[in-house]
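Hey, resending since the last one bounced:
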Amino acid sequence: MIDLNTYLRNFPDSNGYFGEYGGAILPEALVPAFKEVSDAYQTICHSAQFINELRRIRKQFQGRPTPVYHCERLSQKLGACQIYLKREDLNHTGAHKLNHCMGEGLLAKYMGKKKLIAETGAGQHGVALATAAAFFGLECEIHMGAVDIAKQAPNVTRMKILGANVVPVTHGLQTLKEAVDSAFQSYLKDYKDSIYCIGSVLGPHPFPVMVRDFQMCIGVEAREQFLEMTGLLPDAICASVGGGSNAMGLFTAFLGDPVDIYGVEPLGKGPTLGDHSASLTYGKKGMMHGFESIMLTDENGEPAPVHSIASGLDYPSVGPEHAYLRDINRVKYATASDKEAVDAFFKLSRYEGIIPALESSHAIAYAMKLAKEMKTGSILVNCSGRGDKDVDYVVENYGFGEEYAF
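The structure tokens again:
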């Protein structure tokens, strides 16, 4: 455990570092742009007017707080340990991403910007940012790998309906890393009138702390709700980790509590480099996209090719705060494979009537495994998104899941 108040005051430091991870390693032209964002955020995060407006938006537009739900039938199938879900799939647009997108949109309005620029993998961040742009009356430009565009067609359609310009990225592996590269290049050309709204707790400072702060409502709500429901704190909490925004949103409020915390990375098809996206499990320290963290690299030290069935998790690095929390042993990081995620996807659907996103399915898969090991107690899982975007892909590749019943 750590002292949460002291931790939040000291991390990141003034240069954006969590221990040895983080920072803002930028082209010279972008240094003033990111300083402008940092200065603006440091001003408004202490503003009662900004905070009250964001609370109003969360309540009246997003539908927060989202509930905590007890998976009674699934828990019975696993044994005596009880699984609970924080239902971020019930947040407006169907995932946790809107929590920081509405904050970033409000920040852009405060700064007088005209356009929001972002990358997206699974499309949930893209949909959320397009929603924020429509809400605040701003232009929106979303960069998305061509592979993910084909895989996540429903979300692409939603972005376009909301008025966003979806830019296909056709170089490299055509997935999330390349989408980030493309979005950065676009922002470099138009940073005076735009703001780059990073979709996770990564990238140059101040985005890791800013996105964490906007997402912290997940854990603050869940902690209060769980205590009200059971009279106790959960024995363990877990969330999927790609870049790591949904996980930091849940974890932060519990860092000072006697609760085991698990981040679940995508093992994909196995431990061979190129078959997974488990940066913290198999990576080493490196720098990409303007920040230092743990990353997967090839023999030349360049970002390695990665894979996950979940488009929102296939990134070769991870948020710097996750790397720090791993190093100080406050959070344990584990993995779930594609096969295990699909199994959890179908089991939660069949036994609880909840179709989770494939990203969330990784955390649910690990919670199911952990419940059998713990035998008693309780586990709170962040169900970070709904699986509407994934159903066509899953059915095409795995059928209707008859073989995944208990």
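The mean pLDDT is 95.

Sorry for the duplicate.
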